[in-house]
Amino acid sequence: MVFKPRRFIGVLVGIAIILSLLALDALLLFYLRRSQISFVFFVSSLFVAVSLPLLALLSYLVYALLTLRYHLHRDALTIVWGATQQIIPMGSIREVVRGEGLGEEIKVRGVSWPGHLVGCGQMEGIGRTLFYATEPSAKQLLVITPTLTYGISPANLDGFLDAFDIRQHMGPIQLLSHEHRQPHFLSWPIWRDRLAHLLLGLGLGTNLVLLAYLCWRYPSWAEIFKLPAIGLATLLVNSSLGILIHRQQRVGAYLLWGGAVVVQLLTWLAVFNIIG
After folding, report:
1. CA–CA separation, 10 vs 135, rounded Å?
2. Buried-state track 77-109, b at ≥16 Cβ within 10 A, e below 16
3. What integer pLDDT is reported at residue 149 of this predicted model?
4. At what angle do helices 8-34 and 39-67 cross, to 10 degrees?
5. 22-35 burial string, b = 16+ CB within 10 Å, else e?
6. Bridge-partner residues for 88, per DSSP?
7. Within 13 A of 74's CA, how many CA atoms are on the CB side?
8. Distance in angstroms (rounded) separating the CA atoms of residues 6 and 222
9. I need a labelling partner for 211 at 20 to 30 A (CA). Which of 23, 154, 164, 235 fits?
10. Which residues of the chain fall short of a pLDDT of 70?
């Protein structure tokens, strides 16, 4: 049996955020077409560049919200949110309780806007909780297991509770284990590698600071911008190759990213030799 949450408000807010960002990008692109290189030009260009992956992420989050649903059957409760699935065996569910009367609204680390609440929080007396909901905690159901609690918000709370009681009394057909399914790339070790983050951040930050400085102090020196452009191209190539080989050749990835940082520093030296 499939239960769905109320999604209208969350989808409406998500689309409004996307459209607002697109409108701002359009205004900035109109400005960039008519302006000369300057520090404001650099900041505007950087904002547009950063907004592109942000728009892609927001679009996916709206898609994930549109797919949010709760599959309840004798063997397990399955929460579906985009490409992510939480499979919770019925035998591991201690109880399902209403969230009303639990006190203040919980701060959640993750995706949070009106009508869309997905992430992790800590509930007093309950413990660590994963939320896949579209309503505040007072209008949610809490699915409590020995290790984790899940906050969900089916539109028909009473119908869900009745269906859960029936299936729990029927007993499972097969014994399942808890399973968290997500896109494969999200399990790559690079997301937990702090040295990788440091090297990638140093390379990009060093290049952007140089570009910002040149846009501020030497906006009319068109030729000098070729040097940070070469540095940026090197950074993109080395970063991409490093990400591809990181799982099998972590040291090789570090060397690629470290080499990109060295190229940025050499670019700085070359620029100051020219302008000095």
Report:
1. 9
2. bbbbbbebebbbbbebbeebbebeebeeebebe
3. 94
4. 160
5. eeebeebeeeeeee
6. 77
7. 7
8. 54
9. 23
10. 102-105
